[in-house]
Each structure stands twice: as C-alpha cells, then as structure tokens.
C-alpha cells in the first residue's frame, strides 16, 4: 500500500466495503512511518474497525491517537471527522457525556460537507441514546448538504438512519420511503457492509409492518452477507430476537441473545450493544416463562442504560423488569405506580410500547382490586386497538376486554375478545409455516381465556363450546402453505436425510457421531429457516365453527370436548341435539396421571411386566374420574369422539373404562372433526403399503396385507426411499406405513419415519398435494405431539389432517413390535369389511390375546379424525 494522499484517504470508505482489507492496509500505512495526516487516517480506520467489530478499548486508543495526529497536522476538517468517530465510540462505551462533548467540538471544527457528516454521526448517537427528536433534527440538517455535495454513501447512510428513527417512533410508511431511497443509492456503490445493513433494515421494516416471514428472510439474507465480510452481527442478533419473540419462538430468541452477549464479552465489545442484548434476553426469558432469568437480565440492562444516560432504552428495560416481577408473583401497589410511570415515560418518548405498560399497570391494579386505578390505565391502553401493527391492536383489545370484565359487561368482554382474535387470525394467516401459525396463537391465549370465563358464567354450554373452539387447533383450520419449489430447500432435505442416516448407522456400530450430529443440526437450521420464510396465502382464519352444524352431523355419536377453566377440566358433552356441561377434576392432576400411564405402558411393552396390568387399569379409572367426571355415565351406547386440550394429547383414551369397548376416535378440535367427516376419499382407491428398515418384526403384517388388498403398491427394501414413498402416498385412499417412528420434542416438525435413505419428516409430508385419505402408522411414538402456542399441537398426525387425510391410526407410546402384527391384521380385516378406522380398531383390540403385552399395545393406538 502506498502512502499517497488519495490512496490513504480512500481507506475510510473501504472500512464498510471490505472491512478486513481496510484494516490490513491501514496497518501497512502505519508501518511505513507516514506523515501525521496519513497516520491520523490509518489510526481512524483501525479505530472504526475495532469499534464496530472488535475491542472497544483498543478502538478508543486508536481514535484518540487519530485525533491528536489530526491536530498536529493542523487540519480542522480532519480533526472534526475524527472527533465524530470518537464520539460514537465513547457513546457505545457508555461514556455519554464525553461522547456528546466530542460531537460538539467536531461540529464547531468542521464546515460544510465535513460538518454534515459530523451531524449525521451525532444523529446516530442520539438514536442510540433514544433521543429521537434530536436525531431527526441533526439528520434533517445533514441530508441536504450531503446531497448537494453528491456524497452518495453518506446520503444513503443518513436516509437509512432517518428511516430507523421513524421505525422507533412507529412511522412505518415514512421509514419505508427512506429505506427505498437509500437502497437505490446503495445499488450504485461498492459498500458491501452498508448494503448488508440496508437489507437488515428492510427486515426490521417488514417486522414493524407485521410481515414476519419477510422479516426472517431479509435478516437471514443480511446475516449471509455479513458472514461473507467476516463481521459480527450484534444489531442483527437483536432484531432477529425481536422477530422470533413476535413469532412465538421466545426460547430461540433467549438462546440467540445470550450467545451474542457471550461473544460480545469475549471481544470487549460495545457496552451499548450489551445493554440492548440484555434487554431482548430479558424479554425473551419472560415470554419463555422464566421470570427469574428475565428479572436478572432486565435489572442489569436498567443499570447499564442508566449509566449510559439512555432514557428511552431504560424505560423499555424497566417495563420488562416490572412485567417479570409481576409474572413472578410480586404484585403490589408500588408495581402499579412503577408501571404507570414507565407508561408515561414511553408515551413522552413516542414509543409504541406505551400501551403495553398501561395494560400492565391496569392488569396489576385489577389483581389488587383497585378498580378505579385499573380503569384509568386500561382506558389508555385500549386506545391502541384501532391502529398500528397487529400485536399492538391485540394489546388494545385485551385492555378493552379487561375493562368490560371489571364493569361486569359479559357482552363487552366477548366483543373485545372476538375483535382481538380476529386481528390475530388475519396476522396468523400471513404466516406460511405451520410452526409459526401454531406458536403465534400464544398472543391470543388471554383473550380466549377471558371469553371462556365470560361464557361459563352466563352464556351456557353452547356458547362455552363456541369459545372453546375459537382458539383451539387453529393450525388445522386451513391447509398449510405449500413449501416453494425451492431447489436449495430440496437439496437441504436430501442432504439432511443422508447425514441423518449416516449418523444412525454410526450409532448402531458404536462409532463417533459428533461431526455428523453437528452437520445434521446445521441442515435442520437451514431447512427450518427456509420454511419460516414462507408467507401465508389462505384468506381469513378458516371456517367459523357452527354448533348446529356439528350437532346435525354427529347423529348418534357423542362428542366430548374438554375445556380448561381456572385449572379445572370442564366436559362439554355434545349429541342428541344439545350440549351439556359437567365439571371434572384438576388439569394438573390429570396431566400427572397421564404421564404415569405412559411410563406404565412402556413397561408393559416388554415381557415380564404382567403384574403391572391391574395397576395400569386402576390408573385408567383415576384418569376417567379426573377427565370425564359425571359425564362418563351420560355417554350413551354410541360412538364417542374425544376432543382434548393440547396438554392432554398423550392420554391413551381407550384405557378409560367407559371408553374401552367403544367405537372411539380423537380429534384436536370439533371443527377439525367436522372437516374430516366431510372429506371425500380420492378417486381410484389406490392402496400403498410401506415396510421400512430395521423393524424387530420386519413389518411382518405387510405381506399378509398385500394378499388382502389384491394388487396394492408395496414398497420395501431400497424402494422405501423418501421421494418414491412421497410419490406413491400422494392421493392414495389408504396407506399403511410400518417404519420406526422418532418423535422430536425439541423440534416436532423433524419427527420422522425411518426410510431406506433416511428420515421422512413432517416437512416432507407438507409437500404432498394430498396426503392419503386414511393412513395407518404401525410403529412406536407416531402419535406423539408437541403442545405449543395457546392450544396447538405439532407432529406427524397434525401435519396430515389439513392435507386431505380424514383418519389416522397411530401410537402415542412405545409398543411391542411383535404384538403390533396381530393388531394390524385385525384392523385391516375390519377395514376390508367396510368399517371405519375407529370401528376396526375397536374390533381389533377385542380380537387380541388377553395378556398384558397385547392389551397394552391395543391401548397405545388411537384413531384420529373421522374416516
């Protein structure tokens, strides 16, 4: 690198075009004994690199050296420019007063174009500090001068900053206009880091406008660009955490924030960024149900923001701290006053979070019985229900519902809940990924609970049924968005299967697998990331539930819907033209008993546990008392459909005495049962039998079933490769899959069936045009599901139901492979005779040998849907 003036001065824009190259060249300049002016530039370049990508203490050393050298060179313009860079670094280091003093001196020393650049950087510092009016004023003064000087790079930076400030104030349209103008300018430059920042900023704008899939896609694109440049991404981490939390992925957000904090601490990075990361970590911990971690993170953030003189940020941190303390049960009059004070602060700052603080103050006041104070705060929060992004409007409707409840207006509660859930329906259906749709329902849990409570008190059983259905299993209310014909996604799925199969083979041979597991996790992240980018294309929130339609379709069948109110199970018994309500036992006790039953069934799957059979039957009697109560004696003689809440999905319903000899099916909601009941089988009547590798029984039922069905499609050995299996399953009237099932509690959409070339996962099934009309999964754990969101389930069964499958038979527990064979043969005998899945499964259980292993196997299988 030569030390000519033009080449040395050209290093400054290169810091954000090719950061690492600029750093190396600046170090070369300093090694050539340059004059003070050139040395000042080189030290400034190193200072900028260290400030944004490295150690802040090293950055301050170089920037002070650059300032002193500029003064020695008697260059006021050079000194002003360095002072602005130093000011930003001091603010990021938490030395706010010194940083603002450096800016003030820089504004005085610079003129014209240089002063405009100083003003831009001071505007950035004001934004970091949360002083938005001052930021807008400085950038307003800078932009015309930068444009007049035809300074494309700095004009684009100033427009991006102004857009970001507009977003902080909730002015999304103004932000969009500035981001668009900035991006047009960036396209004419080689500033790769700034271009990545522009993509990141567009992601933030998409999030603020409520488009979560677009936000995730843009933030992932920005991350890839930063990775090519080898630069850290702390601001992107913060923004992605915000999007993940809005999508209901709080645990992932907490992990990302904590990971970024560890990296930042490791390099001695910016104190301001650490405070912001602590704030998002606190919010994520609170949303993830960990108030104690939230309190610890938020308290530290409050202290850092106070030391940094960042009032806007500090108010947000105090809001999270108060929310976490309330969630930990620390409600008090002081907490109401603190929440009200934070609400006033946020409103004064023009922060969109102000209604959340008012809602919090009102909610705490209601809990203390302070109705007058609650009304005052809730009325303020309720103003947000008519405008703003979806989640802000939901906050307003929640406040309105609480106001109506306090005033004793049942009608007002139900109207507010209806309006709020309608907003969430529209928002939810913009999400293409079934996982995001499921997790987004958590935002409406309070509204659904308030409506159920109001319905129970005065609305009667029919209204309670309507509200029990309103926010249950919403993922099944409309078909999922088909994954795009994305070659990269298909490549990742193929690679994932290959790596997963190699890892499984290595485990069986006791060979090391850490490297394979790391690659498998990487591919899982890539697949999940691409599917989360999908935008929903289904209008509205699906069909509205109609009680009269349900009662007409039931005929002689009784539908038992279990609702949970105040921690107790309420049975809504639907049939014979009416809905009756019965109160049963505590939900927590039923969950505990169901887990004990699952453990007992696992033991009965192996010989030698026969003495446990009476114990398991006794557990079934206790479960019946807890889950059905007096309703068990009112079921009548006909078929029964059970609709449990998500938290009870692991109950083996056939074990309950009153259900043991019945035609019994289970459905995630009454609405999904209606849709399954109305689903017509596809033309053609194709039967597909799949025998996967590694089964202890060898899938012994499959050859017999092939003889039963005449000329079915039989896939076994190498033919059970995922692409071929999917091709044959698409549009079949019946599919029987004998393959090892694996449930992934950590990632339910990666639950799988083992095929010859690796796992067949939920994401694969979602690519079918139409899943089989009836599907039988004869192996362990294929009916296990993950409870997420308000009352949603994710797993193999729930992936199939919206795709055209009307009925599924699957197991919710480990089973004895040998005992499965006679059960499956008897099941298909009934189907061949024209029975439904539920009828055939009832008869198949009756036909099993009367020993503990076979009985447990029969109880473990459940018929889902209505086919």
From TrEMBL:
Superkingdom of this protein's organism: Bacteria
Residue span, CHAT domain: 619-865
Protein known as: CHAT domain-containing protein
Origin species: Streptomyces broussonetiae
Lineage, top ranks: Bacteria, Bacillati, Actinomycetota, Actinomycetes, Kitasatosporales
């Amino acid at each position: 690198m030569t030390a000519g003036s033009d080449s040395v001065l050209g290093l400054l824009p290169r810091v954000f075009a090719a950061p690492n190259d600029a750093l190396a060249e600046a170090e070369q300049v300093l090694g050539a004994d340059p004059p003070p002016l050139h040395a000042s530039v080189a030290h400034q370049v190193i200072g900028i690199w260290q400030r944004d990508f490295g150690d802040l203490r090293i950055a301050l050393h170089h920037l002070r050296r650059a300032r002193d050298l500029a003064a020695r060179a008697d260059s006021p313009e050079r000194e002003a420019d360095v002072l602005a860079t130093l000011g930003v670094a001091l603010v990021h280091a938490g030395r706010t007063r010194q940083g603002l003093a450096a800016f003030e001196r820089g504004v005085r020393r610079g003129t014209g174009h240089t002063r405009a650049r100083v003003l831009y950087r001071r505007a950035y510092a004001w934004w970091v500090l949360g002083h938005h009016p001052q930021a807008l004023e400085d950038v307003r003064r800078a932009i015309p001068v930068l444009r007049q000087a035809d300074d494309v790079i700095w004009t684009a930076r100033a427009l991006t900053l102004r857009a970001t400030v507009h977003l902080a104030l909730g002015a999304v349209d103004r932000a969009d206009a500035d981001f668009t103008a900035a991006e047009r300018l960036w396209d004419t430059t080689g500033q790769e880091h700034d271009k990545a920042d522009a993509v990141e900023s567009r992601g933030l704008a998409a999030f603020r406008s409520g488009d979560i899939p677009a936000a995730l896609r843009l933030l992932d694109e920005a991350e890839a660009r930063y990775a090519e440049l080898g630069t850290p991404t702390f601001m992107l981490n913060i923004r992605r955490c915000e999007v993940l939390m809005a999508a209901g992925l709080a645990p992932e957000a907490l992990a990302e924030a904590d990971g970024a904090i560890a990296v930042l601490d490791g390099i001695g990075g910016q104190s301001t960024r650490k405070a912001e990361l602590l704030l998002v970590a606190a919010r994520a911990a609170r949303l993830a149900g960990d108030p104690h971690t939230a309190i610890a993170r938020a308290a530290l953030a409050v202290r850092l923001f106070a030391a940094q003189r960042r009032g806007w940020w500090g108010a947000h941190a105090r809001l999270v701290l108060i929310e976490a303390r309330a969630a930990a049960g620390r409600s008090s009059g002081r907490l109401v006053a603190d929440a009200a004070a934070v609400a006033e602060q946020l409103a004064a700052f023009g922060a969109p979070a102000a209604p959340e603080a008012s809602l919090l103050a009102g909610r705490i006041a209601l809990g203390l019985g302070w109705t007058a104070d609650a009304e005052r705060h809730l009325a303020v929060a309720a103003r947000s229900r008519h405008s703003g992004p979806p989640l802000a409007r939901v906050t307003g409707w929640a406040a309105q519902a609480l106001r109506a409840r306090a005033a004793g207006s049942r009608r007002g509660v139900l109207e507010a809940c209806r309006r709020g859930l309608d907003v969430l329906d529209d928002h939810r259906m913009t999400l293409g990924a079934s996982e995001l749709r499921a997790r987004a329902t958590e935002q409406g849990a309070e509204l659904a609970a308030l409506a159920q409570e109001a319905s129970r008190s005065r609305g009667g059983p029919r209204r309670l049924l309507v509200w029990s259905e309103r926010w249950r299993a919403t993922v099944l209310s409309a078909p999922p968005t088909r994954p795009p014909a994305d070659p990269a996604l298909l490549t990742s799925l193929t690679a994932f299967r290959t790596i997963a199969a190699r890892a499984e083979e290595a485990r069986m041979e006791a060979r090391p697998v850490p490297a394979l597991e790391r690659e498998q996790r990487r591919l899982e992240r890539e697949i999940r990331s691409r599917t989360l980018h999908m935008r929903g294309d289904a209008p509205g929130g699906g069909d509205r539930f109609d009680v009269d339609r349900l009662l007409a379709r039931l005929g002689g069948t009784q539908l038992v819907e279990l609702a949970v109110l105040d921690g107790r199970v309420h049975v809504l018994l639907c049939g014979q033209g009416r809905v009756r309500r019965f109160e049963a036992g505590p939900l927590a006790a039923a969950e505990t008993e169901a887990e004990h039953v699952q453990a007992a069934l696992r033991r009965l799957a192996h010989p030698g546990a026969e003495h446990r059979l009476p114990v398991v039957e006794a557990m079934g009697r206790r479960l019946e008392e807890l889950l059905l109560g007096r309703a068990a004696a009112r079921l009548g003689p006909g078929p029964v459909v059970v609709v449990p809440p998500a938290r009870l999905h692991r109950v083996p319903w056939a074990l309950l005495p009153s259900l043991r000899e019945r035609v019994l099916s289970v459905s995630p909601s009454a609405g999904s049962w209606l849709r399954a009941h109305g689903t017509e089988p596809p033309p053609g009547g194709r039967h597909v039998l799949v025998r996967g590798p590694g089964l202890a029984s060898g899938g012994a039922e499959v050859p017999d079933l092939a003889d039963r069905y005449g000329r079915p499609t039989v896939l076994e050995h190498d033919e059970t490769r995922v692409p071929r299996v999917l091709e044959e399953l698409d549009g079949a009237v019946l599919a029987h899959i004998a393959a090892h099932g694996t449930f992934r509690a950590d990632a339910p959409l990666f639950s799988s069936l083992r095929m010859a070339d690796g796992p067949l996962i939920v994401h694969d099934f979602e690519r079918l045009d139409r899943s089989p009309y009836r599907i039988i999964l004869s192996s362990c754990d294929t009916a296990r599901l993950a409870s997420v969101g308000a009352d949603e389930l994710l797993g193999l069964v729930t992936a199939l139901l919206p795709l055209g499958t009307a009925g599924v038979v699957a197991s919710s527990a480990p089973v004895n492979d040998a005992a499965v064979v006679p059960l499956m043969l008897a099941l298909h005998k009934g189907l061949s005779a024209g029975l439904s899945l539920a009828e055939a499964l009832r008869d198949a259980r009756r036909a099993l040998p009367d020993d503990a292993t076979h009985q447990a196997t029969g109880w473990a299988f459940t018929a889902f849907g209505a086919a």
